[in-house]
Automatic annotation (TrEMBL):
Record-level Gene Ontology MF annotations: metal ion binding; nucleotide binding; nucleotidyltransferase activity; tRNA binding
Any one of the GO BP annotations: tRNA processing
Annotated tRNA nucleotidyltransferase/poly(A) polymerase RNA and SrmB- binding domain residues: 174-233
Nucleotidyltransferase in keyword set: yes
CDD domains, A to Z: NT_ClassII-CCAase
Cofactor(s) it depends on: Mg(2+)
Protein name in UniProt: tRNA nucleotidyltransferase (CCA-adding enzyme)
Keyword annotations of the record: Magnesium, Metal-binding, Nucleotide-binding, Nucleotidyltransferase, RNA-binding, Transferase, tRNA processing
PANTHER family named among the record's database cross-references: CCA TRNA NUCLEOTIDYLTRANSFERASE 1, MITOCHONDRIAL
Domain Poly A polymerase head residues, every copy: 27-146
Lineage, broadest ranks: Bacteria, Bacillati, Bacillota, Clostridia, Eubacteriales
Domain CCA-adding enzyme C-terminal positions: 362-447
């Protein structure tokens, strides 16, 4: 069946210039896959039978970036748009389990497609030839199946990152991993030790954001435990608590599935990672996890540093601080009372967005607990949310910097410079939050005078 892919003007021009020069050229990889799935591709990768030198000759009147030349890639700047063009190639051995030792250029499209990772990414298209799909990738897309090109064991041994990349595809696209590919993934998971933490983290973060993340994380527990060993203790760990109907791992996955953004998803993935090490069983046989938010915070801090999370797309150091703070306070009790809400806001340094995230985290947590407790928990969160919006209308004083007096005022009052200044300001803030005194300078100075 014929299929027409609408290639944007600039990539289409680059393909036409190569075709007019007597070479074969077209789009390949993720852009072709996305187009076949009815999605709008973000990047258009072009492959061609032209050698790197011939590509340079075709585009001699354009500015080019030649940094990827040894792998056959030339980036051509056309109307301020970077167009990546790569020569058909055959990869040599992968002795380091990541990159080919040698690259040989070829005129054969089929040889080029046969080196690619998954069948969905080994589909070529141009307007003249139509779709060229020697590995039935289009049928796999229609069947929602993820399958390696050729022998999956060989394919994954060549580059172990393809394992996590494959799980990311399965999560994002909602595909089922084909049996032989799945077996090869499990059998070769130890090769992930050859892959940099940065690359693994990038793929893992994308995996978490996929529509099928919950199922993929559950089905491939062994691989997740290999890249994040701290998660292994969570898997199958029974909670023995009336508030919980899942083990720690299943609870985590269900909670994750109820989050809408990356910060919340990362929070829920790690929020209970400290539970197994905090577990105690009381005389009635009820399980408890005292101080698990703090332990989870500490474990996750180490994981973020080890896995270099700031290299992942869409994550920065401030996001990581927010995630760690949410983990730390995810189980902190909040009552639907103004002064309690102000206290929590104070702990969050007055960050209104972070407070709303905390409520979302608590909701996701509740949705992954025993259903007989759910209605009460959700109703309470809803009440807290309503009162929170009432509170912020008045621009409440929730941090020391919001106080109507400063440390200088206390010094002028006669209080000596030192730790006492901070302690007094903190005590005054608490009184304001509890509505024991008003946040007015004269009143606060009078109250501070009691410390003289």
């Amino acid at each position: 069946m014929n299929f027409n892919i609408e290639i944007p003007k600039i990539p289409e021009l680059a393909i036409k210039m190569l075709l007019d020069s007597g070479f074969e050229a077209g789009v390949v990889g993720g852009c072709t896959r996305d187009a076949l799935m009815g999605k709008v591709p973000h990047d258009w990768d072009i492959c061609t039978s032209a050698t790197p030198q011939e590509i340079q000759s075709v585009f001699k009147n354009f500015k080019m970036i030649l940094m990827g030349l040894k792998h056959g890639t030339v980036v051509v700047l056309i109307d301020k748009e970077n167009i990546e063009i790569t020569t058909y190639r055959i990869d040599g051995d992968y002795s380091d389990g990541r990159r080919p030792d040698t690259v040989c250029f070829t005129r054969s499209l089929i040889e080029d497609l046969s080196r690619r990772d998954y069948t969905q990414n080994a589909i070529f298209y141009n307007e003249t030839q139509g779709i060229i799909d020697p590995f039935n990738g289009r049928a796999d897309i229609e069947d929602k199946v993820l399958k390696c090109v050729g022998n999956p064991d060989i394919r994954l041994k060549e580059d172990a990152l393809r394992i996590i990349r494959g799980l990311r595809f399965a999560s994002k696209l909602g595909f089922e991993v084909e049996k032989s590919t799945k077996i090869a993934m499990f059998n070769n998971k130890e090769l992930l030790s050859k892959v940099s933490q940065e690359r693994i983290t990038v793929e893992f973060v994308k995996l978490l954001q996929g529509q099928n993340a919950m199922n993929v994380l559950d089905e491939f527990q062994e691989i997740i435990a290999y890249i994040i060993p701290e998660t292994k203790a969570m898997m199958g760990f029974q909670q023995h608590n009336p508030y919980h109907c899942y083990d720690v791992w299943q609870h985590t996955l269900v909670a994750l599935s109820n989050c809408n953004n990356l910060i919340e998803k990362l929070t829920m993935f790690f929020h209970d990672i400290g539970k197994p090490s905090c577990f105690t069983l009381d005389a009635r046989g009820v399980g408890h996890f005292y101080k698990h938010p703090q332990v989870s915070f500490e474990i996750t801090t180490k994981i973020f540093k080890r896995m270099k999370f700031t290299t992942a797309e869409g994550i920065n150091s401030n996001d990581l601080k927010d995630i760690l703070e949410l983990i730390k306070y995810h189980d902190y009790p909040i009552e639907p009372k103004k002064n309690i809400i102000k206290k929590v806001l104070s702990k969050l340094n007055g960050n209104l967005v972070q407070f709303e995230r905390l409520l979302s985290v608590k909701k996701a947590d509740a949705l992954a607990q025993a259903p007989d407790k759910l209605n009460h928990r959700l109703k309470e969160i809803q009440e807290i949310e309503l009162i929170f919006h009432e509170v912020i209308k008045d621009s409440p004083c929730t941090t020391i910097k919001d106080l109507a007096i400063t440390g200088s005022d206390l010094i002028n009052l006669g209080i000596p410079v030192g730790e006492q200044i901070g302690k007094i300001l903190k005590a005054l803030l608490e009184q304001v939050i509890n509505e024991q005194v008003s946040n007015e300078k004269d009143i606060l100075l009078k109250e501070a005078g009691k410390y003289l």
